[in-house]
Specification:
about 220 residues; alpha/beta; Rossmann fold; nucleic acid binding; 2 domains; about 45% helix; membrane; transmembrane helix; transmembrane; seven-stranded parallel β-sheet; UDP-N-acetylglucosamine transferase subunit ALG14
Length: about 220
C-alpha cells in the first residue's frame, strides 16, 4: 500500500513537471513570435511589388482635426487600389461620418463601423483602462470578420484597441494586417502618447516633421515624408 501511494505521488509529480515544461515552451514560443512581429529581421528591398487585386483597407477616424488630416491623406489615395474601405469611428463622434459620406459620395465600395471610444477628452487615465479594455474586446469581431490587409490610422486613442487586436491576430497568424500609423502634423518634436504606444505595434509610423525621425537607427519604424 505504501509503495502504491509512493508510485502514485511520483506519477503526479512527473505529470506536473511535464505540464509546466509544456507551458514554459509555449510561453517562450509566444514571446519569440511577439518579438519577431515587433522587430522583423527582413528588410524591404525598395522595389515595388505588383498586385493584381486591390488592398482591403480599414481606416480609423480620430475625430476633429485628426479626421481632417486623414481625409487629406485619403484624397491622395487611388480608391481603385484600396478597396473595399472600412471606416471606423468612435460612438461619440458624429462629424466624421458626414466627412466620409462626402468623400465617398460617388462610391459604393465602402462601409462604416462604429466602436466605443477608448478614452474621452479629459477622461482620467485610470478610468480609461477599463474603457480601453472594453473597446479592445469590441474590436475583435470586427477585425475577425473584415480581415483587412491594411489598417491606416492617425488619430488618438480610438485606434489603439484596433491596432492591439490586429497585432495579436498577426502574432497568432490569424490575420496578417499591415498597420500604418500617421503621426499628427501638430507633433513637431515629440511623439504623441498614441504614437509612443504604437511604435512597438505598428509596422510603419509616418511623421511629418524631421525632428521625429531617427536617422541613425536603421531598424526604426519611423519614416518622414
Amino acid at each position: 500500500m505504501t509503495l502504491f501511494f509512493a508510485s502514485n505521488g511520483y506519477t503526479t509529480k512527473m505529470y506536473a513537471i511535464y505540464y509546466i515544461s509544456i507551458c514554459i515552451i509555449v510561453c517562450m514560443i509566444i514571446i519569440a513570435r511577439i518579438y519577431f512581429v515587433m522587430f522583423p529581421t527582413h528588410k524591404t528591398s525598395g522595389r515595388k511589388s505588383i498586385r493584381n487585386k486591390p488592398i482591403k483597407t480599414m481606416i480609423v477616424l480620430g475625430s476633429g482635426g485628426h479626421t481632417a488630416e486623414m481625409i487629406r491623406i485619403l484624397n491622395y489615395l487611388s480608391f481603385r487600389n484600396y478597396s473595399p474601405r472600412i471606416y471606423v469611428y468612435a460612438d461619440t463622434d458624429s462629424m466624421s461620418i458626414e466627412k466620409v459620406k462626402y468623400l465617398e459620395k460617388n462610391n459604393v465600395d465602402y462601409k462604416i463601423i462604429k466602436i466605443r471610444r477608448s478614452r474621452e477628452i479629459h477622461q482620467s487615465y485610470y478610468t480609461s483602462i477599463y474603457s480601453t479594455i472594453y473597446a479592445t474586446l469590441e474590436s475583435v469581431p470586427y477585425l475577425w470578420r473584415e480581415c483587412p490587409e491594411l489598417l491606416l490610422c492617425n488619430g488618438p486613442g480610438t485606434c489603439v484597441p484596433l491596432c492591439i487586436v490586429a497585432f495579436l491576430f498577426k502574432v497568432f497568424c490569424i490575420v496578417q494586417t499591415t498597420i500604418i500609423f500617421v503621426e499628427s502634423f501638430c507633433r513637431v518634436k515629440t511623439l504623441s502618447l498614441t504614437g509612443k504606444i504604437l511604435y512597438y505595434i505598428a509596422d510603419y509610423q509616418i511623421v511629418q516633421w524631421p525632428y521625429l525621425q531617427e536617422p541613425d537607427d536603421k531598424s526604426s519604424k519611423i519614416f518622414y515624408f
